[in-house]
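Supplementary Note 2. Why include the ligand at all?

Several targets in our set were suspected to adopt different conformations when bound, so apo predictions alone were not considered sufficient. For every target with a known small-molecule partner we therefore ran a joint prediction. The input for zinc ion is given below.
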Amino acid sequence: MPEYRQDPLSRRWVIIGSDRAGRPNEFVEATTRHTAQPCPFCAGHETETPPAIATYDAGLGGPWSVRVVPNKFPAVLAEEVPPFPGAALESQSEGHPLPGFGKHEVIIETPRHVASFSELTPAEATLVLRAYRDRLRILKADGRFRYVQIFKNVGAAAGASLEHVHSQLIALPGVPEVIRQELQSSLDFFQTRQKSLLESMIDSELDADLRVVAATSRYVAWCPAASRFPYETWLAPRFAQANFENGEDGELGELAGIARDVIDRIERATGVSTYNYYLHTAPFDRSAPEHYHWHFEIAPRLTKVAGFEWGTGCYINPCPPETAAAHLRGAANR
Ligand SMILES: [Zn+2]
Ligand SMILES: [Zn+2]
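The joint prediction is reproduced in token form.
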């Protein structure tokens, strides 16, 4: 029997199917890789991107391990005047257009031409997370931004224009509606239950052990009950931390390990490496709210978002997250 479910954090509704779709390999064809072609993100092609803002070296002998550069084709511009410095963008725009102020950066995750986070070495993956953390700290200190969206597109169907594994970030002068909704849901829950919503979701997932994919002492990955997509997986700390930029160096290796493991499991279980992930973290302009938890949402792109989803904001997911989690638990490599 199909089932309506609501995600308590985003308050989105989904329709979970009754597993009639079977294994996800039936949803899409495997992507073809062109791993032999040199590209602007490969070592030796550094002049084809704008000069680096930051580089990280894992000591593996190359010129760099992770490289942060401005996006050559930015969606928003730092040269624009910030619309209302320090003020709430939403409350002052009154629906009028505002200058496209912001920052658009690219994090190139390895000098080698590989396509997925799962193909990074542990050292590279850790440095990628450190770059996320450092960029958040630096853009927060800049004072002109209120939120930074960090995201990754892997595979053409997920919106990647270059195959070489990379993430992007867009620093915004306002807080996106999705984050505002998550903060509001978390605050409402905290006010009635005196507990963090995400912490409570994580506790009940660990207790039920129906949808948990992997866990370490500090982090847990699970398929959310109201998954929008087959094999959707969230990754969050088991301890209270609202702002990703508050993470310490010593925590990042463990997080990189579970992130690589989970993405590798998704690729093994589905036979496809096409996904988006994005980090949800508390905005800059408030002291770390104890009711919020940063988290990564990993969204494999096995099905297409179509007319019903566009029209309603409600997602039809043919693969129950309980089934997906069982497959993912059985898909371990290391
Ligand atoms: Zn490349
Ligand atoms: Zn979220």
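The helical segments are 89-93, 122-142, 177-193, 197-208, 249-270, 307-312, 321-329. The pocket of zinc ion (ligand 2) is lined by residues 9, 182, 280, 295, 297 (CB under 6 Å). Comparable summaries for the other entries are listed in the accompanying table.
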